[in-house]
Amino acid sequence: MTTAPAPPGTARPPAAPRGGRAGAATGLIPGLRSATYWPYLVPGLVLLTVIVLVPLVWNVYLTFTDYRGIRPPEWVGLENWVELAGDTTFWTSFRNSVAMVVAMVVVPTALGLVLAAMLFDLIGRKFGGRVASFLRATYYLPQILPSVVAAIVIGWILRPQDGALNTVLGAVGLGSLQANWLGDPATALPSIMVVLVWVQIGYPVVIFMAALQRVDPELYEAAELDGAGWFHRFRAITVAMIRPEIFVVVLTCAIAALKVFGPVYALTGGGPGTSTVVPAYYAYSEFFQSQQVGYGATIATALTVVIAALAVVFVTVQARLEKREETR
Amino acid sequence: MSAVVTAPEHTSSERRSQPAPRPRSRRRRRRTGADWATLAVAVLVGLLVAVPFLLILVNSFKSPAEYSSEGPLSLPSSLYVDGIVAFWERVDFPEKLWNSVLISGSVAVLAVLLSVLNAFALGIGRVKGRTGIVLLILLANMLPQEVLLYPLYFMFKEVGLYNTVWSVIIIFTVIQSAFGTYLLASVYGTFPKEVLEAAALDGASRWQILWRVVLPISRPTLSVLAIFFFIWTWNEFLIPLTFLVSNETQTVPVAITVLQGDRLMDVTTTSASALLGLLPTLVFFLLFQRTLTRGITAGAVK
Q1: Which of A51, A80, A90, A225 to mutate to test the interface with B (most CBs of B within 10 A)?
Q2: Which residue ranges does the record annotate as region Disordered (chain B) (predicted)?
Q3: Phi first, then psi: what are they for A26, rounded to 5°?
């Protein structure tokens, strides 16, 4: 979602020809200069300043202090940042973030593409739109759950003694595969990843299917008549047509993956040990369990820097790709 | 993106073309074995997604004794509702439900209003430097909320709003409207100019044009936004967890999670709590699913 305003030409195509640069001073309503619209921005910008910008700056200030939440913050310079650089838990948390990106971006986007294409290209055409939209709604179900409730449900399925998963494994004679899914450092992270895939899968499917409505079904039929197989159509039509949406999904999900907190809080609390700790949870526990507010602020700020860098890289790459597309 | 083009058209012609134009070209086609196999795979995936929901449903109505003897997979032999009742009473569920409804409902309305005001200036007014402003506003959505946590905690404590639902309402109004502003600004950027010109010729002021022309025409997009804001706010966790510390102000997800640490909770009560936690959003989703699919192109950008 952050990407679209940046590349001009994709976001608001019909607007560009009307007036172009010269029209910058007037709005869409004739006879009104754009400067006269500023009052409408006042509430939004004031609230943004108070709720987001001031706290953001304040938080950056806190990273240079030793602060336990009781006595006033004490200036310590770069101490927190130096400590952060050598903090193995912090680096573990970022390594786990990579796992979250796999679980919330890579797998759902890939699966989502295939599922959306299947629903649109095959099931929608051969079995009717109703079947396709019913399945789409089913895939979307976990998305409407509060993520912590989703985590609790899954946590309960994964309980070691009487959880559903181990019960099923025992019943079908695979008792040797039973595990203490969330309590064992070896399986805790993969378990959380599976939960996140489950939660996340419906989002790309819904977005991609909406995007595919731009595509003329005749295109698929023509390709099919020409003898193009499913995979060929998938690559040449589906993926090619919805590339903007793929970008949006990948970026928004990547940001969400880096920020993930609720499921970790509800499922494992970062444990066992630090096997499932993520930056957001680590910052939270420094704030409220260790009372190390300055250090928690440093972790949160580092996370912000990573997210911002990712967004910038992403928007730049996307803009460059689009430019290349246009000149072709 | 796709919303940009479609949203304003959703007005008059829409009623006729309902349900949303779906690609159902030529139904009667040859269905090959491969088609059936694809359908089977898609249904199987659907089942995998749905299984946890079915498990919650089944186990919410079991007694703890039955759960331990029969396991999590059997159907309940009788309808046992004590788990649900126990959870309902222990957390004072109606109170939590009201808090969640109040917070999410207020945010949905206020954030849409704020988005409209912002987007009117940015999309229709085209104020200078609008791309920069949109990016600045989007910051609210991209930041990890941990960054805002402590400073906001201070500020709200200072003004006496800490541990009231209003703190959370204000924070999420700003955060959600960031996305709304982004979406609406591009929708309004392509607003049919003729309509605006006609209104201006009739002597309507900016304010009148906003309320009488822009708002009604973009209503489908606005209702989709409101639904998203409602569900997203309902599902929020970190800020409600840290700002709503007393029992009387908690939201449904917070109440459920806090109770997890409670040793007294048996497995069927956990299941019942999950059922009660997901029911409101499920009902809301089913109620508004039509609106959502109608405006799905608008939602496509999220």
Answers
A1: A51
A2: 1-30
A3: -115, 150
* ipTM confidence: 0.81
Best to test chain B binding among A3, A48, A167 (most B CBs inside 10 Å)? A48
Closest residue on chain B to A215 (Cα): B23
The fold for domain A89-327 equals MetI-like fold (1.10.3720)
Task: Tell me which chain A residues have a C-beta less than 8 angstroms from the C-beta of B143.
Answer: 52, 56, 304, 307
Question: What pTM was estimated for this model as a whole?
Answer: 0.83
- What are the residue ranges spanned by the domains of chain B? 104-298
Q: Which of B146, B188, B200 sits opposite A31 (nearest CB)?
A: B200
DSSP states along B14-48: HHHH-S-------S-----HHHHHHHHHHHHHHHH
Q: Per-residue pLDDT tens for A166-225?
A: 888 888 888 778 888 888 888 899 999 998 999 999 989 988 888 888 788 788 888 888
Rounded distance, CA B34 to CA B32, Å? Answer: 5
From the candidate CATH numbers 1.20.1250.20, 1.10.1740.10, 2.70.150.10, 1.10.3720.10, the one assigned to the domain spanning B104-298: 1.10.3720.10
Question: Which of B114, B175, B256 is nearest residue A149 as measured by Cβ atoms?
Answer: B256
Contact B165, B93 (CB under 8 A): no
